[in-house]
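Hi all, long-time lurker, first post. I run a small reading group and we've been trying to get comfortable going from sequence to structure in the token notation. Rather than ask abstract questions, I figured I'd post a concrete chain and ask someone more experienced to write out its structure so we can walk through it together at our next meeting. Sequence below, copied exactly:
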Amino acid sequence: MAKPKIKPLANSDHVMRYIAPGRQMRDFSTDALVGIFPAAFELREVDQGALSVTWIEYFGGRSASHCAKAAAQIQKSFKKSKASQVFAIGNVGAIKESGNKDKCAVRVSHEPTANNPAHSSIRRFTNENEYLLSLLASEVFTDLRDANGNIAK
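-- Answer (accepted) --
Happy to help. Here is the structure in token form:
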């Protein structure tokens, strides 16, 4: 099988990332979702230098139903259903701009896999780019959704 072609995503496109419960900021008294921690964007050794995301426009647009399709595609990689599923959406142009603010030329590209044809990656940064991680959490990936594509609570 031929290796899929990697192509950069347009600045106007959007990507989605699963946010684990331990990376979600919640109000202590109401348990309402109030944001995400920068650690949600830290690279792990298994990531091999690329943060996995899913390209939403691959599914034809950016409505709630397209977000739900992207979330479903991400869920296929889980071995079992996860509680408190939250997905964060970020604009590709804003991701790159945040990289520029931290003096790293971040690249966002469509890199389909056998399990996820919409799989994409954010590359060219490290966990030492703490300012970038903070910007991604506080300014870029602020649209938080549930598995149905609705605003997460």
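A couple of things your group might point at:
Strands lie at 7-8, 14-19, 24-26, 33-36, 50-55, 86-91, 107-110, 119-123, 143-145.
The longest helix spans residues 64-75.
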